[in-house]
Amino acid sequence: MSILEVKDLTVTFPGGVQAVRGVSYEVERGEVLGIVGESGSGKSVTSLAVMGLLPPNAVVSGSAKLHGRELLGMDDDELVKIRGKAISMIFQDPLSAFTPVYTIGDQIAEAVRIHQRMAKDKAAKRAVELLDLVGIPHPDVRAKAFPHEFSGGMRQRAMIAMAIANDPDLLICDEPTTALDVTIQAQVLEVLKTAQQETGAGIVMITHDLGVIAGMADRVLVMYAGRPVEQGPVDDLYYRPRMPYTMGLLASIPRVDGEEGPLVPIEGNPPSPSSLPPGCPFAPRCPMRVDMCDDEEPPLIPFGPGGGRSVACIRSHEIEHKGLTGADVFPVPVIPPSEVVRVPRAERATVLELDDMIRHYPLMKGAVMKRRVGTVYAVDGITFDIAEGETLALVGESGCGKTTTLQQIMQLAPPEGGRVVVLGKDSAKIDKAMRRALRRDVQIVFQDPMAALDPRMPVQDIIAEPLRAHGRKDVRARVAELLELVGLSPEHAERYPSQFSGGQRQRIGIARALALEPKLLVLDEPVSALDVSIQAGVINLLEELKNTLGLSYLFVAHDLAVVRHLADRVAVMYLGKIAEIGTVEEVYDHPAHPYTQALLSAIPLPDPEMERTRKRILLEGDLPSPANPPTGCRFRTRCPKFATQLDEAQRQRCVDEEPSVARLAGAVDHGAACHYAEEIEVITASDDQEEK
Amino acid sequence: MGKYLLRRLAINVILVAVAASLAYMLAASTMSPRAAYQGRQPPIPEATIDATLDMYNLNDKVPVLQRYATWATGVLQGDFGKTWNGGSVNDEMGRRIFVSLRLLLIGTLLGFAVGVGLGAISAVKQYKATDRLIGVSSFVVLAIPVFVLATLLAIATYNLNRGLGFTLIEYTGEYNPQLSGWDQFLNRLNHLILPTISLSLGSIAFYSRIQRNMMLDVLGQDFVRTARAKGLRRRTALTKHALRTALIPSATYFAFAFGTMFTGATFTEKIFAWHGMGAWLVDAINAQDVNSVAAVTFFTAICVLFAAFLSDLLVAALDPRVRVN
């Protein structure tokens, strides 16, 4: 019998905003149901409605039954006995999800004591046990710590501990790993699996990450514009999607094991819930749209033999019959090849060169008399170069020094140590006028397209600003040209940023960066704030611009799948140092540094079969503080190789001697900073490979 | 933390010294206690006036810096000098501080407690009738100067008493000296009712506006939702998690109100005829009483800095995030 049964759930907010329009699903004991959708698709609202945690002005109808008991409309006195006991919830951002003024232990003990009659000291003990269960080291000490003293991954573990405190029947996880780094994400997903085994609970897993779902879920529900558009067992849905939106979504995600070349974009934007198109809400973006699609919204109807599968598309049988996939249906843009790349790399000009660059931050103490008590080794000697027409990606977990590197380059100021050479000019040896002139050639695109554009400036002024700053005259024509270049209509130049969607805003940011015809574009996580279906279009645009304009990119990202698509070369950073550098093919297919191997193996693949059989290299613990890095090799405290494969003498070398990046034998452009570098394949890991 | 607070304390001592010295200089160079003696009938001989003023360290014929040195030496030994007519400033201050304290203690605490409560309710019921009522009333109270409010209250009470034919609520003075024991205590409380209302109304209005904003900030946060998702009742989640966190910023305001409580409330004291610190400052300025003005200023500086110190302590006690550094 199913634990939770949701039927025709609708949620309407004041002003006629239909956030959820008829969602039905069931979750059974021990089952994981994945709910996938983009922002605004109503996936989170659905679960909040089940929990009865929506604001009072939301109108909820339909039915949600827990063990046959209706939850909707239930008295709050009854609901509090269910919340946290029968149904628990794990939220996305674990920092804001804990009350800042109480200790983690107290908050978990509180959850225990709400539902179980237990003395205070016993509940505190139970909290420590739970923290131990989710793998928090020294749980008795850490229980007395406050939320801000925990790292992101640790907080999410504690959140899971709190959610399973009362042995719930159902766990609702709302984007549980979205805010975390991939290696930490892999750890937390492992903990979730443990928690499920421990409690036997059903799980509703809400996320936009199709890779995470592939590895976790048994069944998947795809939501679009407040409605489920396709539902089925995970393998069926991933390998045989029968609704164009699902097909597009699966085809549009960049894959870490994928081929190079353009991604499949889904044109347009998701509709606003207050003004839905007539008929099928996906029709305006659907390449298979026919006139009938606009007549009425197709219901979610059972599909195919065996049951368990349902699809909301009038052409699903045709898709089945012809065996169509997303790549067949969605038009793939043709990106012209780059002219520059034909010249061998060694003969091309070098656009940017970093030579042992160092950036340290002093740690100060004291209110009046400041004194230095330490140093944050943010960037501690990194070396790389970018040739003309090339994309170098800088990857690594948060806190590894990527952003500091970018800032140092963009400042065009003399670095604390080493050299920064931009277009052949050493930043330490140029004067003010030269620096200003050089700024034309180096431009940046920021991560958050909303925060990077002045909301009170019309788009044409935003794009014209760099032009005017450098005294260009033909501003109007150039703005129109730039808008067209990034795929926006020049007629929209009078509009304000808030009138554009996230993807369009990022295009405006790119247009602004291109205004001065730079040679080097620095991209700081340019697509990580965008929805999956939008992301592909922006990645394609960046690729095209690079090829047609002969640009070079320095691309900072934490998403290694995006990097694989966009970059030619990749540098993996760890604690202010480069761990591994080389061409994308070499590094991804034959990673030699244990950190790169762990990083690559932690990325979930949107492929259920592979996810199930894949061996993961799990890293222990969190990134050490850059103020106090380990001696010798910085990675050794978390290194699986150091922990399991090396003998005492070999380990001593890791402790004493800091490895530098060394070219690997037999490779043209591939180096790793490891004393015991060894190339192995991890993305499609095989069984004969060492694990953990 | 202890070290940090000690250093703050040391800086505060310097600040008090600077503030007090400047205040003394200002008072000593602009006020003329001589005037109080010159206009008398029969006239007092100049030499006698000089002698008297010299005795009190108030003679404007002595250079300001010299008078300041004498005053400062006294202060360092705990002696604030003499009033214009030869009374001890120390005695006067000692008496008046406690008058002010008795007047303000209840009002300050009540104002904070009720204000925070109303503010929290107002935030939880945002845009509902309760919220609007509290909001409008707060602004009405804030818009009325305290002397108007106090006077209105006094007049209303006077009329009420007259209508009833006996004194239900006292509207002037601190106590009835003819009573003693338990009766006098009750009488003192009765005398407190009106000034407390007039004082706390203002702070209730003030705190309710501040607390409403703080609470609204916190209500939208995820941890309140988490608390409810754990199975806490709405009320418990709101008080234990939301209000507790939203109290931190209000604590600073409270610390300052509490610290400056000892310096009295000028208007309220004057209107209800309580002889506290606030009334003293006005009287002292009228009487050109240099040493009293300097003493009040000195004491106020100490109170303000003590309040800052108290606010540091309170915030550190309430907020674990600032405790680390």
UniProtKB/TrEMBL annotation, chain A:
It holds the Pfam family ABC_tran. Its main location: membrane. One of its GO terms (cellular component) is plasma membrane. It is found in: Cell membrane. InterPro entries: AAA+_ATPase, ABC_Ni/Peptide_Import, ABC_transporter-like_ATP-bd, ABC_transporter-like_CS, Oligopep_ABC_C, P-loop_NTPase. The keyword tRNA-binding does not apply. Keywords: ATP-binding, Cell membrane, Membrane, Nucleotide-binding, Transport. It is a peripheral membrane protein. One of its GO terms (molecular function) is ATP binding. One of its GO terms (biological process) is peptide transport. Residues 4-250, 352-600 form the ABC transporter domain. The keyword Cell membrane applies. PROSITE patterns: ABC_TRANSPORTER_1, ABC_TRANSPORTER_2. Belongs to the ABC transporter superfamily. NCBIfam families: oligo_HPY (TIGR01727), PRK10419.1 (NF007739), PRK11308.1 (NF008453). This is Peptide/nickel transport system ATP-binding protein. It comes from Nonomuraea wenchangensis.
From TrEMBL, chain B:
The chain crosses the membrane at residues 9-27, 97-121, 133-158, 189-207, 242-267, 293-318. Pfam families: BPD_transp_1. GO terms for cellular component: plasma membrane. Residues 97-311 form the ABC transmembrane type-1 domain. Keywords: Cell membrane, Membrane, Transmembrane, Transmembrane helix, Transport. It is a multi-pass membrane protein. One of its GO terms (biological process) is transmembrane transport. It comes from the Bacteria. Its main location: membrane. InterPro entries: MetI-like (IPR000515), MetI-like_sf (IPR035906). The keyword Transmembrane helix applies. It is found in: Cell membrane. The keyword Translocase does not apply. Belongs to the binding-protein-dependent transport system permease family. This is Peptide/nickel transport system permease protein. It comes from Nonomuraea wenchangensis.
